[in-house]
Amino acid sequence: MLHHPFRYAMLMALTAIAFTNSHAQTVIEDSFSLEAGYEDMAFYSLETGVVAQSPLADWHIALDIRPMGSTARINCGTGMKLYPYGNLEQWLNVDFENWVAPAPLRNDHSDWSNAAFAQGGDGMFDLGWGVYDVITHEVESDKMYLIELPDGTWKQFALLSLIDGVYEFQVADIDGANETLLAINKADYEGKLFAYCNLSTGQILDLEPDAPWDFQFLTYTEDIGEGTYYAVVGALAHPNVMVQQVDDLYDPYTDGDYNIDSFSLATNEVGYDWKSYVPGAGYALESSRCYFVSANDGTVWRMVMTGFDGASTGNISIGKVEATVSSVVDPKQSLAIQAFPNPIESGQNLTLQAPQQFEQATFRICTSSGATAAQFQPTQFPWTMNTSNLVRGFYFVEGINAEGNRIQSRFVVD
């Protein structure tokens, strides 16, 4: 499946370590700015801080250039809106004066793959903007869209095809004038998520850093309840990052543990709701909340949002504590298990490699929601099992031996 959201989820093993109050570490305070009016977007690494930053208004659409990516996001944070219009044959005959705008197409910020141009698809071969041919592995489209840009001008747009890793799309003024045909080759952006395009200038932009990042901080439009969409400032997680939110902590830097079954792959798990506006007093932070973050490099962090100044400065502050070996409850719990191949196609044999003391241990395979999909007791390692009963998705494998030692890992069925 071209745009399957799980294939590029984190593939590194995550050992089951837990924080304890007796092993509290020094809090690292970090601050950065999206500039006044939230002018910028920033790519942030928990390890190194901001690794790239650029004006949010520089781009209008972002095309998914991951190997299996096949969609495009819109820059909703600037006020841009995307509307379906009809078939591509209407390109030169847009009746804008009599057109009644339908509901705009929006990005689903819980999943990078479920972007605005994916809306209306069936999750299989209809990708929303085009149809995937299972024989040629090409995506072609006969649809066109109307786009309202942040400055109030309108464009007509068509995402024409995705063939051999190359997107082709065209943009023009609302009457078809100034038509421009553009192309983006995925091979030019290896290891990145999106390539960006400014529809006013026709410029293709490489805004994503080469360095690893964990969150993209920016303004985006989100459903804040009952179908009300509003521009918010928040953090969207890299697809290799998992997050667990924990609330009601007396000390968010030391209290509470994380649970691997509770980690979420939702892009907006941190999102925007770590702050709220209090009229006359500014912004209030969720001071009893922490986010356990399994970062892009496999390191686990406690992240606490500690400051937000609002539009006057765009300043954001974060407190973070790394989970290192010194904070492990029991070093025996860091024993490793490997699951391979990873990712694996359903029906193939999955091989598990674990220490000898986990022979005869009880193992279970759980879905990302925590449901048990399989349970078994390996007699020796390597141990092989068939995955025919596992649907596509993200899974945890966990083993507990007679001494109570625990090992965990994760894998993807594609």
Task: Give the tags.
414 residues, mainly beta, Immunoglobulin-like, 3 domains, 7-stranded antiparallel beta sheet, 5-stranded antiparallel beta sheet, 29 strands, disordered N terminus
Walkthrough of the structure:
The chain is built from no helices and 29 strands. The chain has 414 residues and is mainly β. Strands 6, 7, 8, 9, 10, 11 and 12 form a seven-stranded antiparallel beta sheet that branches. Strands 1-22-21-20-17 form a five-stranded antiparallel beta sheet, with no helix packed on it. The chain is globular. The N terminus is likely disordered.
Give the tally of structural domains.
3
SSE class: mainly beta
Order of helices and strands: EEEEEEEEEEEEEEEEEEEEEEEEEEEEE
Helix content range: under 10%
Number of strands: 29
Question: Which residue ranges are poorly predicted, with pLDDT under 50 across at least 5 consecutive positions?
Answer: 1-24, 324-334
Average pLDDT, all residues = 86
Q: How many helices does DSSP assign? A: 0
Radius of gyration: 23 Å
Principal-axes shape call: globular
**How far apart are the termini?**
8 Å
Strand percentage: 35-45%
Give a short account of the largest sheet: 7 strands, antiparallel
